[in-house]
Write a structure and sequence with these properties.
Length: about 525
């Protein structure tokens, strides 16, 4: 699209009244979360093969021991994934043995301190709490633990997530009684609702692990209590094999195990349309009849549809290494915000960019036009979608551009801060250390920022001052350094690059393509 046409759009854009995201924009892209276990080689194989389809990986690394210590199964090498890693901690002690750990405030504080230290040392995005086997009477203590955990972790910029037992109403007794959804809600950024084991290994009669009508009621209730933008629908990837002669316990089966059973004993899979679940019946060599209920691509797809129908934050798969390989077709088909949209005729409130196959509309379009347009931000490289913000752990409607990420902040509606730019400079340099420098003389040619301990001078200072300063770029977080043959300097939101070959032109300082680089790192773009 020619710049001349864009200037015409800019004149018309002043007619746009609202800054909110585009009405009728694409539905939020579900977050894709999966659990990984280090003791199963097939779990690692699945992660290596399918990591590109995941936004979060939760490895089962840590156990809270009865004495309050945390034992670890952390590997020496990082996981082969660009997804955000949120390790899981489970409790070994349960019920009466767990009560002292959760009921005593000083005990809770020690556990929280240990977990925060683990997450900070490991550079993890946050923590995933999977405490199970809790007396319903300890419900207030679990809620207090999560509230205290949230205060500590959010203060450190870390995500707070947890797994909760599924229920369709506020049951205060039984396995799910300890989970007070409504009062846990303020303390969690994401919550996996374990919508499985409706029939479990101890069930006297075989049946679906996650019948679709029950899953829908679980999703509906969880969304009403936590808010849909916090709920990850837990989806099983396994099966149970009941011996109809001897009865329970049923034997846990991976999908591959069930394929082997069919190969050995014959027959075919069947699908129960009422529960949207797969099953298989066979006779073992000892003459005993067996019935297996399990999850395959069709049953998983039905559950993904539930998550989309209730506009949930996403899905959580238990667990990698157990699945029907075809489920990744379903997971991969969840709309990637980098997927191009069909061309359309541009209007005053929505324009199409054939250069990238993406559109820009309403509030984000207005902000783009007002603050520098193509030269400043580049082309859009996604559509609008919802994303967990790494700076505060909250979910915002965002859109990525070659050089920026726009974020819609409804809490600032009606103010100049309703649309903000993401801190891509900080995200691009996560894990790197830039030593602060001593204060410089404030002579107009150099400026020192005590907020970050860095200075700004020369062409970068001129560019920073003339094009919006702190609001547009944030504070400097490095000094000028050499990268890829250029002198560059990182700021909270951008990377400035000095191009001496363009000296004396408006292009002597260019902004790095941090938006594109970040999505390439995630595996969303090539």
């Amino acid at each position: 699209m020619r710049r001349k046409h864009l200037h015409g759009i800019a004149m018309l854009a002043t007619l746009i009244a609202a800054v909110a995201p585009a009405a009728g924009a694409e539905a939020a892209t579900p977050q894709r979360w999966a659990y990984y276990v280090p003791w199963d080689p097939s779990s690692l194989d699945s992660l290596r093969t399918n990591s590109r389809y995941l936004d979060f990986v939760s490895p089962y690394y840590f156990i809270l021991e009865p004495d309050g210590s945390i034992t670890s199964d952390e590997p020496a090498s990082p996981l082969p994934t660009n997804a955000r890693i949120v390790p899981m901690v489970k409790n070994r002690a349960q019920y009466a043995d767990f009560h002292p750990q959760i009921a005593d405030r000083s005990s809770r504080a020690r556990i929280i301190g240990s977990l925060l230290g683990i997450v900070q040392r490991g550079g993890y995005a946050g923590i995933h709490i999977d405490f199970e086997g809790i007396f319903p009477e300890d419900r207030p203590y679990l809620t207090a633990f999560m509230s205290e955990l949230a205060a500590a972790f959010r203060g450190a910029g870390k995500l707070v997530t947890m797994a909760v037992a599924a229920k369709t109403y506020d049951a205060t007794l039984g396995w799910a009684g300890a989970y007070d959804y409504a009062n846990l809600a303020p303390s969690v950024d994401l919550v996996t609702v374990m919508a499985y084991d409706y029939h479990y290994s101890g069930s006297p009669n075989p049946g679906p692990i996650a019948p679709i009508d029950w899953v829908g009621r679980v999703a509906s209730f969880a969304a009403s209590q936590f808010g849909p933008n916090k709920v990850l629908l837990g989806i099983p990837l396994y099966g149970y094999d009941w011996n109809l002669v001897t009865g329970p316990p049923a034997k846990a089966r991976r999908y591959g195990d069930i394929v082997d059973l069919v190969s050995r004993y014959g027959g075919t899979f069947a699908f129960d349309d009422n529960s949207k679940s797969a099953y298989y019946q066979y006779t073992a060599p000892d003459g005993a009849a067996h019935e297996v209920w399990f999850e395959n691509v069709a049953s998983v797809g039905a559950k993904v549809d539930v998550a989309i129908r209730y506009n949930l934050a996403g899905i959580a798969l238990w667990r990698l290494g157990q699945e029907d390989g075809d489920v990744w077709k379903v997971i991969g088909a969840l709309k990637n915000p980098t997927a191009q949209v069909p061309p359309f005729e541009s209007s005053t409130d929505r324009i199409y960019f054939p250069q990238t196959g993406h559109s820009l509309a309403y509030g984000f379009l207005y902000y783009w036009l007002k603050n520098g347009g193509l030269a400043r931000f580049g082309y859009p490289i996604t559509e609008e979608f919802d994303e967990v913000n790494p700076a505060d752990g909250r979910i915002y409607t965002v859109q990525y551009f070659e050089r920026a990420r726009f974020e819609y902040h409804p809490e600032y509606k009606g103010t100049p801060y309703e649309v903000l730019q993401g801190l891509l400079g900080r995200e691009a340099t996560a894990g790197r250390q830039f030593a602060p420098v001593p204060p410089v003389q404030q002579d107009g040619q150099s400026v020192y920022f005590p907020e970050t301990g860095h200075s700004l001078s020369g062409v970068f200072l001129q560019y920073w001052r003339s094009r919006g300063g702190l609001m547009q770029f944030g504070y400097p977080i490095s000094e000028p350094i050499q990268e890829n043959g250029f002198t560059v300097q990182y700021f909270e939101r951008v990377r400035m690059e000095h191009h001496p070959e363009y000296a004396g032109t408006p292009y002597e300082v260019l902004l790095g393509l941090l938006g594109r680089e970040l999505l390439v790192r995630r595996g969303w773009l090539n």
